[in-house]
Amino acid sequence: MKQYSKHGVLKILLGLFVALAMGLLIYYASDIIKIMSSMDNFRAYIHSTGHWGPVMFILFQILQIVVAPIPGEIVQIAGGYIYGSALGSFYTTVGLILGSAIAFYFTRFIGRDFVSRLLQKQNMKWISFMQDERKFTAFLFIFFVVPGLPKDMLVFVAALTSISSLRFFIILLVARLPWIIGSAALGSTIQTQQYTVAIIISVIAVIGFVLGYIYKDKLVNLFSKAEQANEAPQVDETTKTNETKDANKVMSAVKAKASPALTKPRDMATVKNKG
Question: Which residue has the higher pLDDT, 9 or 234?
């Protein structure tokens, strides 16, 4: 009864949290759209908060991951536009980790049923990868590393699988960090009017998106096979160990059967001596 009541309370709190978040999002939607309508508007708002500017920027990044339908690339580019490449990448990464942690652990420990029902309504081909850990890990890396593909929903999806949190966050950082830095560099070059560099970065991003989108299925299969090949030596070692153990058991059994025959002559000699 205690577990049931605790679970019921968590569900009620979850419902209240979702309702409150959606209500606030709808209420402030026009303000958020106005702030995010241009880089200059976003920078003006962040600067208007004074020393709280970095905190507000990180909150926007968290909001983008958890609830708001804002493309992540926009916030990342804005980070470079406002703070430059280095600080923009740093603040974006902090927001990415915090927002992903909230979404991941919220789903894994509290909102699993809610997110599962939400996914069942989506007709997504890649959901089948959740049943295969190797394919899902490869798929996760590919989707995170290719620019322009929807990524934030995958944080919730990953929490429904058996992937460890450490492995998930390593994949998240390794795959997304290059493009976070690239997006911040793009924003910085736009702000400093280095349009040639900005165009080069944009072209690389577009090419990466097109190639990643076209070959994502092949890349998933390639990465999953590579991971399976890496696990093969471990399987071989285990097999060899088991074979060695079986051989030792057989030898022990042979010795056990042979030992009575070896002791009989000694026993007979002892009897003769006694006689």
Answer: 9
Would you state the structure tokens that stand for residue 273, as one six-digit string?
């001596």
Q: Considering its fold, how many domains does the chain have in total?
A: 1
Number of H helices, E strands in the chain: 10, 0
pLDDT of residue 257: 46
Cα 246 to Cα 159: distance, rounded to the nearest angstrom: 41
Judged by average pLDDT, the poorest of 92-101, 125-134, 226-235 is: 226-235
With respect to residue 114, please indicate whether it lies within any of the assigned structural domains.
yes
Tell me whether residue 251 is in a domain.
no
- In this prediction, residue 247 carries a pLDDT of 43
The reported pLDDT for the residue numbered 110 is 78
Q: Is residue 271 part of a domain?
A: no
Residue 160 to residue 109: CA distance in whole angstroms: 10
CA atoms within 13 A on the CB side of 40: 1
Query: Cα–Cα distance between 205 and 203 in angstroms, integer?
Result: 5
Mean residue pLDDT of the chain comes to 77
Query: What is the distance between the alpha carbons of residues 61 and 77, in angstroms, rounded to a whole number?
Result: 11
- Burial of 243: CB neighbours in 10 Å, binned 0-12, 13-18, 19+: exposed
What residue numbers bound the domain in which 127 lies? 2-228
CA nearest to 54, candidates 69, 238, 214, 62? 62
Closest among 119, 107, 99 to 176, alpha carbons compared: 99
Question: Does residue 261 sit within a domain?
Answer: no
Q: Name the nearest CA neighbour of 67 among 7, 25, 123.
A: 25
Integer Cα distance of 200 and 215 in angstroms: 22
Tens digit of pLDDT for each residue in 115-165?
A: 777 766 655 555 656 666 777 888 888 888 887 777 778 888 888 888 899
